Amino acid sequence: MNLRIIAACCVLLVSPFCAAALEFSEPLTIASSDGGVFYHLDSSGNRAMASNRGTLALVWEDNANGRPTVRVAFRERDAAGFTSPLAVSGPSAAYEPVIAACGDGFLVG
């Protein structure tokens, strides 16, 4: 079990006023499909997002092309939305991607 998740849940249960202060904007579309696509957002070690120098990166795995493929999308701080998804895995099936800030960019594994 992930202890950070347990600790965060305990804080929210003990301090309900903390959760009331959260505000969420409208959802941003990162990828879309005509159906039949499974978006697998369980990255290894919960490392599906990274931020570097004003850019947010999100990585996931989906089966839009018929096999598990790792994709990444980026959003600049002032942009209205994310870039089009970019496939970053090779021709073999890929699962549980991770992303980290690295120098001026990102490293996907």
What does the model show?
The protein has 109 residues and is α+β, with helices and mostly antiparallel strands. It has helices at 3-14, 16-20, and strands at residues 39-40, 49-52, 55-62, 69-76, 86-87, 99-102, 105-108. Mean pLDDT is 79; it is low at 1-15.
Question: What are the key terms here?
Answer:
109 residues; alpha+beta; five-stranded antiparallel β-sheet; two-stranded antiparallel ribbon; 16% helix; globular
Number of strands: 7
Arithmetic mean pLDDT: 79
Number of helices: 2
Strand content: 25-35%
**How far apart lie the N and C ends?**
23 Å
Shape: globular
Largest sheet: 5 strands, antiparallel
The SSE order reads HHEEEEEEE
- Percentage of residues assigned to helices: 10-25%
Weakly predicted, low-confidence segments: 1-15
Helix/strand structural class: alpha+beta
What is the alpha-carbon Rg in Å? 16 Å
What does this entry show, briefly?
The protein is of the alpha+beta class and 109 residues long.
List strands and helices in order, with pairings.
Layout: H1 3-14, H2 16-20, E1 39-40, E2 49-52, E3 55-62, E4 69-76, E5 86-87, E6 99-102, E7 105-108
Antiparallel strand pairs: 1-3, 2-3, 3-4, 4-5, 6-7
